[in-house]
Amino acid sequence: MKFLDRIEEIIGGVSLGVMVTIAFVNVLTRYLFKYSMAFTEELTLYLFVWATLMGASIAFREGSNIAVSFLYDRFGLKGRRMLDVLSAVLSVVFFTTLAYYGVIEVMDEIAMGAMTEAIELPMWWFTIAMPICSLLIILRVLARLRIAFRTETTAEGGE
User: Fold this and answer.
1) Distance separating alpha carbons of residues 106 and 50, to the nearest angstrom
2) Nearest 5 degrees, angle CA 83-CA 100-CA 66?
């Protein structure tokens, strides 16, 4: 999993860095030379998808995704376990669905030879982020659930 951790961080970081650089250069050229590079908006948008989905995977890995702990904290150990399992099941169902339809989208784009408008790169280079990151998130959800049960089991045994 350490390899996946590093890949997520590299892809997310590089995507974000390239987005910021492109946006900055485009602002400079627009104001200094009165020229806007059309491809920058398109590339920034597609890199945003990669950065966002990699960030979501990292958030699931770290357990730092949004959670409503107000109700969760009011439950006992068994209630929390049930909520953890429910949350994991719903997350896995959602991201499995997203991965499934993402694969269909990628296959359609490959079959049609869909290209981006401004930079004329294969569209699937960018939409493949959806199924890849969905699978990474599923792995992260299951790993967090496993860690939570291990930690709780260890805590129960120590009491």
Assistant:
1) 15
2) 35
Side-chain half-sphere exposure of 135, counting CA atoms within 13 A: 10
- pLDDT tens digits, residue range 19-47? 999 989 988 998 998 888 878 888 899 99
CA 88-141-59 angle, 5° bins: 120
pTM above 0.90, yes or no: no
Helix axes 2-32, 38-62, angle to 10 degrees: 150
Return d(Cα 98, Cα 131) in angstroms, integer.
Answer: 7
Handedness of CA 149, 85, 81, 148 (dihedral sign): positive
Nearest-angstrom CA–CA distance, 77 and 69: 14
Coil, helix or strand at residue 94: helix
Burial class for 136, CB neighbours closer than 10 Å (0-12, 13-18, 19+): buried
